[in-house]
Amino acid sequence: MVRIFTEVLFLLSRTETPVPLPLEPGKEKDQWEKLEPFPKDVYRGPLESESVEPALIGGTWYPKKPADPASAGPVVLHIHGGAFVIGDGRIANSGPMMDLFLKHGKTGPVFAPQYRLSSRPTSAPFPAAVQDTLTSYLYFVRTLGIPASNITISGDSAGGNLVIALLRYIVEYGEELNIPQPKCAVIIAPWVAPVKFLWPEIVITSNPNYRSDFLGSELCRWGAKTYIRDVSPDHPYIVPLGRPFKTSVPMLVTFGGAEILAVDGVEWVREMERVEGNKLETYIEPDAPHDTVLIGHVIDFRESSEGVARKIGEFIRQNA
Question: Which keywords does this Swiss-Prot/TrEMBL entry list (predicted)?
Fold first, then answer.
């Protein structure tokens, strides 16, 4: 199944198949919510761009939007993965993962935004996805009035990259913009060095986990070249590896032991752990490929993905 999934990703990536992002609910019905962008003043520094402006986005609640989000208790803001070029957080793509969060992780309600992708037809490069991640977080704390002490931000793969970028942004701009820190963060198989997929192919094929993972070079190369356009490929909001920062937000970082992104990801964790005051917990999923919480039901890693979901739930409750 891993080999079959590898071929599917290869075909999607080689053809750069467009991913439409409609703003209508579809099968999500009343789980769907539209999010207006906030005043441009909150998108400062690395989130400012002459060509990419904050935009209207949508998102899906799981299992449904709380009647009173401000008093609903712990909630999760989850940023989906997909190399910045695929995925949408909707039921068809993210439903099984959200079921794991709710059933095995026993988390509170989860909201998954549909941020803009750098692929066709939206073709929105950096910083669009980071802008939309900030919009989603501000939707929680400002629009819905959810106490930051009840919020876990989580993300998988490219979504993990975006969670790291949001944490950095809150550290750098949160005080002056009155953006509070979330209670904790869950970062699943984060993509911490997209730029490496623009380097010679041998950089990727020499990775010790290259042949045990379905995440080949094609998808990541497609994502890196479309997401990184008019900015430095080593931008700290794109490549956190080698650019640690201090944050008081406790983090759980998970990887599959056989996944290609674990090599750089574990190094990033070590860098962050060396910063005084940072609190990181790491969980390595034995012998697992990339992001089984997302696709474990496809490649028959169900027990493994359920175990990761339970670990995530335990971490959130410990920090509640």
Answer: Hydrolase
